[in-house]
Amino acid sequence: MLQKRIDDQPSISLEMVREAQGILHQHLKRVGLKQTAQRDTILRTFLETRDHLSTDELHRLVQKKDAGIGYTTVYRTLKLLAECGLASEVAFHDGIARYEHQYNRRSHHHMVCTECGSSVEFFSREIDQLEQEIGRRHNYSTTRHTFQIYGVCEDCRKGSPVYAQRRTPAAGPSRLKG
Fold first, then answer.
1. Residue 39: is it exposed, middle or buried by C-beta count within 10 angstroms (0-12/13-18/19+)?
2. Residues 74-86: pLDDT tens digits?
3. What does the pLDDT look like over 97-139, one tens digit per residue?
4. Who's near 167: CB < 8 A, 6+ residues apart?
5. What is the topology classification, in CATH, of domain 106-168?
6. Rounded Cα–Cα distance for residues 155 and 152 (Å)
7. CATH architecture of 11-105
8. Are 52 and 119 within 8 A, CB to CB?
9. Angle between helices 14-30 and 37-48 (to 10 degrees)
10. CA 20 to 30 Å from 59, out of 37, 43, 117, 125?
11. What is the mean pLDDT of the chain?
């Protein structure tokens, strides 16, 4: 599992869960789907965590609350949460789709290590301002964006002979004899 998120609030209140349920229920009505106790359980479980969760990881957490909720229901509910803005899909280096909740959160960005998969969340006023500027330039009213930086974290650089070699001064240019 990837690192926990930086968040403005350490936990989500019951009132906030109810507001998020209202958003989901309105979306379900709009797309002609039923509001169900299983979907509400999935939403509550999702909102209670601060992790970037794959469908498998969320399914395991949901199973602890209600063993009758299947993988497909979790998968489809995550897609619905993304559609109504309560979740967003984030793709890290491992190719596994992960989701993080967006309810009542500040815009943030990710830096991801391509070696170990660790991630760091950060806030950037400059990136947020750039989003608005680009939106204005192209006559868009922007609502959100995603921004990820990929690189190699300090721990991986310290433990890798490739990066250790880059830190030592070179013996000089190599000469090819031909």
1. buried
2. 999 999 998 988 8
3. 888 877 655 566 778 788 887 777 777 788 878 888 999 999 9
4. none
5. Dna Ligase; domain 1 (3.30.1490)
6. 8
7. Orthogonal Bundle (1.10)
8. yes
9. 130
10. 117
11. 80
